[in-house]
Amino acid sequence: MSTQNLIIYKFNELYQILEELGLDLNFKIIVAENEESLNEKIKKIHNYLIISNKKYSDTHNQFVLNYTPINIFKLIEKINIEFLKLQFNSQSEVIIKNYNIDLNSREMFKNNIRLKLTEKEINTINYLSKSEKPVSVDELQQKVWSYQSDIETHTVETHIYRLRKKILNTFNDKDFIISKKNGYQIK
């Protein structure tokens, strides 16, 4: 996992306090005194949280500490929780082909058009997107549906048919999931 970076923005008192505790914290402390400095630091790092004592518009990943005094242990706990939230959110969105897929809300979207998906549809798309080769119906039955391969069922084919139809109707994309003679594939 990459280093967690806490950017303290226009909040010098907090920077001085946390800098003294720096060795005992599990994140790197960075100070930004102005917007130019903040933008320069954000360009160089990826995993960051900005903490300030008031809300600044157009600032993402921001945690506002607008009530002080606060117990230092509570503050560190809140910072760690904010880092966990950021990590959770960053891991929840994947890009497959030209689509963004939000695993948490189970939505697929492109150009402000959204499609709500079921958990099985998300799992199917996710599984297919990770495979370099076509995935057989038997493999999907085992890995996505947890069925035994010797059971005769058309669950996978039916689900894929419905999913492809939903994607076609919403995005006019008939080639998102393609059928091959030995299975299904997203390329």
Note the topology.
Elements: E1 5-9, H1 12-21, E2 28-32, H2 35-44, E3 48-52, E4 62-64, H3 72-92, E5 93-96, E6 99-102, E7 107-110, E8 113-116, H4 119-129, H5 137-143, H6 155-171, E9 178-180, E10 183-185
Parallel strand pairs: 1-2, 1-3, 3-4
Antiparallel strand pairs: 5-6, 6-7, 7-8, 9-10
What does the model show?
The strands form three sheets. Strands 2-1-3-4 form a four-stranded parallel beta sheet, with helices on both faces. Strands 5-6-7-8 form a four-stranded antiparallel beta sheet. It has a two-stranded antiparallel sheet with strand order 9-10. It has two domains: 88 residues; 89 residues, Orthogonal Bundle (Arc Repressor Mutant, subunit A), CATH 1.10.10.10. Helix content is 41%, strand content 21%. It contains six helices and ten strands; from the N terminus they run βαβαββαββββαααββ. The protein is an alpha/beta fold and 187 residues long.
Task: Describe the structure using short key phrases.
187 residues; Arc Repressor Mutant, subunit A; four-stranded antiparallel beta sheet; alpha/beta; 10 strands; four-stranded parallel beta sheet
What is this entry, summarized?
41% of the residues lie in helices and 21% in strands. By secondary structure, the protein is an alpha/beta fold.
